[in-house]
Amino acid sequence: MVRIGVLGAGQIAQAAHFESAVKAKNAELFAICDVAEDLLHRMAIAHGARKTFTSYEAMLADADVDAVIIATADAFHVSAAKAALEAGKHVLCEKPLGLSVEEVESLRKVVKASGKLLQVGHMLRFDAGLQSAKQFIDEEMGEALALKAWYCDSTHRYALTNAVQPAIITSAGAKRPSSDPKADLKRYYMLAHGSHLVDLARYLCGDIVEVETHFRERFGARCWFVDVEFASGAMGHLDLTVAIRMDWHEGFNSMASTAA
C-alpha cells in the first residue's frame, strides 16, 4: 500500500486527486499539506487523511509518506518536485510539469540522483479506450503514416460541467503565484490543454522530432494548427482550438499500412 501525501488542497486536488487516492486499491490518502488551515482541515475530514501539514518540509520529513502528489499552481511544480525527490519520495506532478523547457530540464539530474519515479499527470494514457487504441496501433495497424489529433474546447462547456461537478471549496489563505497564470491566455491554454494534446500524440506515435506551428486569434478564440514529424517518419497534425462555437470535442485518427 503506497501512502500518499498531497501537496495542495485546491481545485485540482478536490476535483481529481483526493478521490482517486481514496478509491485506489493500492494507495492510501495518508496526508494533505496546505498553508490554508481552514481548507486543509476541511479536506482532511472530508477525505479521511490521517495527517495534515501546513509545512511541506514537515510532510516530506515524515517517513510514513511514500509518494507525493503535487497539486499546486503550475509555478510551484518544479521546485516542489525537486524537494520531494531529494527527500526520497516518488512524485506524481500535475501537468504541465513546468512553465519553461529550461526549468523542466533541470529536473533530469535530480530524478536520476534520487532513484525515484517522477510522473506527470497526463491521465489520457490511462484511459482504457486509449490504451486499447494504442495496442491496436502497435500490434495490428502496421507502419504508421499519419496521425490527426484535436482538442477543441467549447464556449459553453464550463456551464455544463459546473452543473455536474462538485463545488470547489476555496480559502483566502491559499498560496497563489506572484502573477495571474491566466493573464496571458495564449500561454495558459497551450500549457493547460496543449500539454494533453502533445502527450496523446507522443503516446500513440512516439517521439516528436520536428514541429511547425501556425497560430491565429480572432473574436476571442485562439487556434493552433501544429504540424509534426515523428521519429518513425510518420506525420502528424494537432489542432488546439479554444473556444469553438459548438460542442466540445476531443479525439484522433491514425492512418497506417495494412498489417501483414
Descriptive overview:
With 260 residues, the protein is an alpha/beta fold. It folds into two domains: 2-121, NAD(P)-binding Rossmann-like Domain (Rossmann fold, 3-Layer(aba) Sandwich), CATH 3.40.50.720; 128-256, Dihydrodipicolinate Reductase, domain 2 (2-Layer Sandwich), CATH 3.30.360.10. Helices cover 36% and strands 30% of the residues. The protein has nine helices and eleven strands. The strands form two sheets. The protein has a six-stranded parallel β-sheet, sandwiched between helices. A hairpin with a 2-residue loop joins strand 8 (208-218) and strand 9. Helix 4 (77-86) runs parallel beside helix 6 (107-114).
Structural topology:
Layout: E1 2-7, H1 11-23, E2 27-33, H2 37-47, E3 51-53, H3 56-61, E4 67-70, H4 77-86, E5 90-93, H5 101-105, H6 107-114, E6 118-120, H7 128-139, E7 144-154, H8 157-164, H9 185-205, E8 208-218, E9 221-230, E10 235-244, E11 249-256
Parallel strand pairs: 1-2, 1-4, 2-3, 4-5, 5-6, 7-10
Antiparallel strand pairs: 7-11, 8-9, 9-10
Shape: globular
**Could you spell the SSE succession in H and E letters?**
EHEHEHEHEHHEHEHHEEEE
The portion of residues assigned to helices is 25-40%
Number of strands: 11
Largest sheet: 6 strands, parallel
C-alpha end-to-end distance = 43 Å
Radius of gyration: 20 Å
Strands of the biggest beta sheet: in what spatial order? 3-2-1-4-5-6
Compact description:
The protein is an alpha/beta fold and 260 residues long. The chain is built from 9 helices and 11 strands. Helix 4 (77-86) runs parallel beside helix 6 (107-114).
